[in-house]
Amino acid sequence: MFSEAISKNITLEARAVMCDNEHNLIVDLPFGRGIIPRIEGAVGIDDGTTKDIALISRVNKPVCFKPLCIETDSDGVVTAILSRKLAQQECLKEYIRNLKSGEIINAKITHFESFGCFVDIGCGIPSLIPIDAISVSRISHPTDRFTNGQDILAVVKSVDGNKVYLSHKELLGTWEENALKFQAGETVSGIVRSVESYGVFVELAPNLAGLAEPFPNAKVGQSASVYIKAIIPEKMKVKLIIVDVFDENIIPEPVEYYITEGKIDRWEYSTENSKKEIISIF
Questions:
Q1: Under CATH, domain 98-171 is a member of which superfamily?
Q2: What is the pTM of this model?
Q3: Per-residue pLDDT reduced to its tens digit, 177-196
Q4: Which of 67, 187, 244, 260 is deepest in the core (most CB within 10 A)?
Q5: How are the residues of the chain apportioned to helix, strand and coil, as percentages rounded to the nearest 5?
Q6: Overall CATH class of domain 2-93
Q7: Helix (H, G, I), strand (E, B) or coil at 169
Q8: Which ranges in the chain belong to alpha helices (H)?
Q9: pLDDT of 216-227, one tens digit each?
């Protein structure tokens, strides 16, 4: 199988078990050890546009690669020489550079920063979803919405050479689509997202939040039970009354997508008669 992959230039995937002191990636293969030399570790390593953290951070994670050759030393130890860079170059040429604005693609969360989450969009090629593009309901950190290693969908905002700019909130439904899941008079669960002097914003869904009157000791990140007092589409408002708030280790729920494939040209979150317009053009 491995010899066939070499002859047919097939991309394979396996787990990186170590990054040595020279920043070569060591890969666990069924028949022995594979090595991705540092210079073959990623596009941009050779000219410094990609930093070595891109290699170090792959340890204990799957990596894509092209097998180059198999070497056997004098002791009979077999080592496969691999190239992750070649796999990435092929992905860039055949996939990434052909993406169009508005296309919905698969992505995998790789790590978090306060300003957004980084995702793998193919063969370890990274892209960023800014925190304000994750959902309409504002969050304090991307971990409020995602977990590391999670498979998600994203929508392409633009492509500039090897760089792909992404968004996510457009796939989570409009105000009306989210509001249809709730009715006035219900008491439902939510998450406190913002505490202001005039009230408490409680998230009911990733793209829907409501405002409740001030509540003693309410804190951002707490779970809440809320009574839905009114739903007002023309103002895009949900009026709430907080019944209780409590501390709980909240694990982000699986994402519910309203759009899962194809291409978006225009997305309008706002309701028809609302004076406030929230629109994305691709």
A1: Nucleic acid-binding proteins (2.40.50.140)
A2: 0.90
A3: 999 999 999 999 999 999 99
A4: 67
A5: 15, 45, 40
A6: mainly beta
A7: helix
A8: 2-8, 53-56, 84-94, 175-179
A9: 999 999 999 999
